């Protein structure tokens, strides 16, 4: 069973995706992390990421499907951050048909724009471990030196604005299309991590037992 988790930046997708992968042993495909790793060796990618711009559709879809093919990943995957545009969805759909892969469940974390900006501005990364914290919703534990945490370039105000407008312009039309062809389960993302996780996990369990 493959799952697509969608939501604007800052909706808690990454946190929930990790919890779901721990509970249900999905392979986690996180588009942002996947690209950041590739960007270590690719300057063009570094530029897209730093500016909060999307990697062009064809290029992105081909990176992802090549990676999935090379690693034999066809089932039990939780997708986070891909597909995120209509163009990517169409390309991905073609690949899925070709490989006889299904998307069994689409879940959407909903959150207001004000809350998104508030949360993203509070996101920090530990440069030593790569671990992401949120000074509001997912505080670093005692022992972590908060002053050493860094803010990602694309979590700075100008890039946040860009990423949110891209979500509206590019991802929302894909969600509208998905709603025509499948059920999109909406979960309120403006609640404590645990409460959101209970809803998502219940939905996954229910879908698995069908
Ligand atoms: P995220 O961590 O999901 O917010 O992604 C970080 C950045 O990676 C985005 O701002 C984009 O520059 C890039 N990115 C992530 N996913 C995609 C995608 N599906 N298509 C194009 N660019 C992406």
UniProtKB/TrEMBL annotation:
Binding-site positions, ATP: 10-15, 123, 132-133, 191
Annotated pathway: Purine metabolism; AMP biosynthesis via salvage pathway; AMP from ADP: step 1/1
Enzyme Commission number, as recorded: 2.7.4.3
Compartments where found: Cytoplasm
Gene Ontology molecular function: any one: AMP kinase activity
Quaternary structure note: Monomer.
UniProt-recorded name of the protein: Adenylate kinase
Source species: Candidatus Woesebacteria bacterium RIFOXYD1_FULL_43_18
């Amino acid at each position: 069973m493959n799952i697509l988790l969608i939501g604007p930046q800052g909706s808690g997708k990454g946190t929930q995706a990790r919890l779901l992968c721990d509970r249900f042993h999905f392979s986690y495909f996180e588009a942002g992390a996947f690209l950041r790793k590739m960007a270590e060796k690719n300057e063009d990618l570094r530029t897209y990421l730093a500016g909060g711009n999307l990697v062009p559709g064809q290029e992105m879809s081909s990176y992802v499907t090549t990676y999935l093919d090379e690693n034999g990943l066809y089932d039990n995957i939780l997708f986070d951050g891909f597909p995120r545009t209509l163009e990517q969805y169409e390309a991905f759909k073609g690949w899925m048909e070709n490989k006889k892969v299904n998307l069994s469940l689409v879940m959407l974390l909903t959150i207001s724009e004000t809350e998104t900006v508030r949360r993203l501005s509070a996101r920090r990364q530990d440069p030593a471990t790569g671990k992401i914290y949120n000074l509001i919703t997912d505080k670093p534990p005692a022992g972590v030196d908060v002053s050493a945490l860094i803010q990602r370039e694309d979590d700075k105000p100008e890039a946040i604005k860009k990423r949110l407008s891209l979500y509206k312009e590019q991802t929302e039309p894909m969600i509208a299309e998905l709603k025509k062809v499948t059920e999109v389960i909406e979960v309120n993302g403006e609640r404590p991590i645990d409460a959101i996780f209970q809803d998502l996990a219940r939905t996954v369990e229910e879908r698995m037992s069908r």
